[in-house]
Design a protein that fits this description.
homodimer, about 350 residues, alpha+beta, Arc Repressor Mutant, subunit A, Beta-Lactamase, Enolase-like, domain 1, 13 helices, about 50% helix, DNA-binding
DNA sequence: CCTTAGCACTCCGTCCTTGGGAGTGCTAGC
DNA sequence: GCTAGCACTCCCAAGGACGGAGTGCTAAGG
């Protein structure tokens, strides 16, 4: 990766090619470019420049004597150096605001899902939202329900109102009355503890003398520990209206579409990509082969963290073909993250 | 719909055409048919019969001088009269059993999802499962959690271990302690009441003198009522691995596929189709235009109820192109329903 | 040295034609 | 009522011609 800086005119032409190709999805030729973008030079000159840009790896021809299209590297340069100032048409702002505000008063899950959907609709791509990470979630309440002797349903509620539940084997538990006591004990013990610290807290409590002698308390801790165990994968991913992607011509091909949809099913993949945006500042753009997942050849992801600046909670973003209007999508994702952050603040 | 009965030979030919077309997805011609199915008559005779069958509406030609394919009516006759005895290859039985047994010990949701998935995989179509209807679900436990003053999270658990939750506005509620009392009260009141009867029970209790004078109890009932309200749509639908449908050549066309996927998103549509199978006895087969939803032109649904015979709980089925191996799929759906019923019994 | 006009060339996509294959319907004979 | 034979229809794949869009190169001009 040599960090090239293009001369002004060359950059302008690269920018024009990207803009044009994003718009039309057809290879762009010199003549057309000059006309549409009022470049004050002749097509022949543009051709020379294009040949240079191709040599540098920013453009390529799908076949000889066709127009040029941007390579991943071309898009990269465009994103890094040529983006117009971030401005979002007020119509889109409004739609985003409305979509997120409408779900605002509801539970967290609804809010996140609504956000992913409205992102999809406004961007004409597919919106993604990762639920707040386990680290920022705080224990609020636990409830134990005896389904039948030896089998207990553990319900866990976080401060933001997210409900987790899981069935746990507990052969020694026989009555709901026992569970009631355990519930009270656990609730008292864990009130306000961050979920990540719950296990630790429980282990510490195990040392407590009182616990050593009380079978019930020991069991309660055991249950509590099992309840939070294995929940590390906490990052639920919401995929909004995946069918939107069919609006993009590159996915008229069934095989391509299928690959992408398979990625959608494997939430782990999406999580991996979006997670990088949680830590990093600003909006992250992964273009085509830049992103680590082979199945997502030809796709780009624009993502950013949401939450307070000093304390990112999760990430959201948009996935679509590499041929995407980066300026617009970046502004969109940025704004959506701000709105979602605000909504969570209120929640 | 005139209820025609075909003469033996005609019926056999219709059956052969259906079998062959299901297998190859190509219009089938007379010559080929004779050879492959060892009909002891000449192609010319077969042609005559086919012409008759076409006139009766069982077959049609996509264009002159092409082979024949079954019409919806043709499939209907096949399903009603020509199905080979229901027998399921032991390999498929095993795969079904395994898929369902594996999820058996888990919570209900997991079980239902696993069932829809294994149906998809074994049938090479898309499996559908409707969660047990609200009528057969029984109240087990309720829990109220104060998220912040005036806003309460209501968690509802049914006997089978299904967890519902919802955020409810309750401006007067200010402390968790109040909620604790309400919780106990509601749990005592509703233990073992079928969900459909909960609201009724609550209304009856409202008349109770004790309640008239106790603000807390009134509020508790209010909350309980809101918690079950609007939950009529209880039938959650699980769609198993929709991408499987791409294995069928008819869905290589993006537009067709898109329509179907849109139907998958609108769970209401699927619910409507499957719900008919809950009441009806045996396996229901809706072929192409027979099913009430226009978007599902060209698709068939094979569905049946699961649960105890005298008390159906929900429905499951398979959706795919009209060109599907009905005999096999019917046997599959039947067996899956039995397995799921048994699994629920144990749960 | 950079720019540009001109020109020959390349490649794609479309349209048309052609020929073979699969299948039918009809007729006449058994 | 069944069947062999035959003429006919239609699709589909392959081949060829052609126009369009675009390029690269060369040579001339600033």
């Amino acid at each position: 990766m040599t960090e090239t800086t293009l001369r002004d005119r060359d950059a302008r032409i690269l920018g024009a090619v990207v803009d044009e190709f994003v718009q039309t999805a057809e290879p762009v030729g010199s003549r057309n470019l000059v006309k549409k973008y009022r470049l004050e030079i002749s097509p022949a000159t543009v051709r020379n420049v294009m040949a240079d840009l191709e040599e540098m790896g920013f453009l390529y021809q799908p076949h000889t004597s066709a127009g040029r299209q941007p390579t991943d590297q071309g898009y990269r340069y465009y994103v890094d150096h040529l983006l117009p100032g971030p401005s979002l048409p007020s119509g889109q702002r409004r739609r985003l605001r409305q979509g997120i505000r409408d779900a605002d008063l509801d539970a967290l899950e609804t809010l996140l899902e609504a956000t992913s959907r409205v992102l999809s609709r406004v961007a004409h791509q597919v919106g993604l939202v990762v639920a707040p990470r386990i680290e920022v979630r705080v224990f609020r309440h636990v409830d134990l329900v005896l389904l039948r002797p030896g089998r207990v349903l553990v319900i866990l509620v976080t401060r933001s109102g997210v409900v987790h539940h899981r069935v746990v084997e507990a052969p020694e538990v026989r009555s709901q009355a026992e569970l009631e006591k355990m519930t009270n004990y656990l609730n008292g013990l864990l009130e306000g503890v961050p979920l990540v610290a719950v296990r630790e807290r429980i282990l510490a409590e195990m040392e407590n003398e009182r616990v050593q002698y009380d079978r019930l308390l020991r069991q309660a801790l055991e249950l509590g520990s099992q309840a939070v165990g294995g929940d590390e994968g906490g990052g639920q991913v919401y995929v909004g209206e995946p069918l939107r992607i069919l609006e993009q011509p590159e996915f008229q091909d069934v095989e391509k579409m299928r690959q992408l949809f398979e990625a959608f099913e494997r939430k782990g993949i999406l999580l991996r990509i979006l997670d990088r945006a949680v830590e990093a500042p600003g909006v992250q753009v992964s273009i085509g082969t830049e992103n680590p997942v082979a199945d997502l050849q030809g796709c780009s992801v624009v993502a950013t963290a949401y939450g307070r600046d000093d304390r990112p909670m999760g990430a959201l973003g948009v996935i679509g073909p590499t041929r995407m209007p980066y300026g617009e999508v970046i502004a969109l994702v940025e704004y959506a993250a701000r709105l979602l952050g605000q909504a969570l603040e209120r929640l």
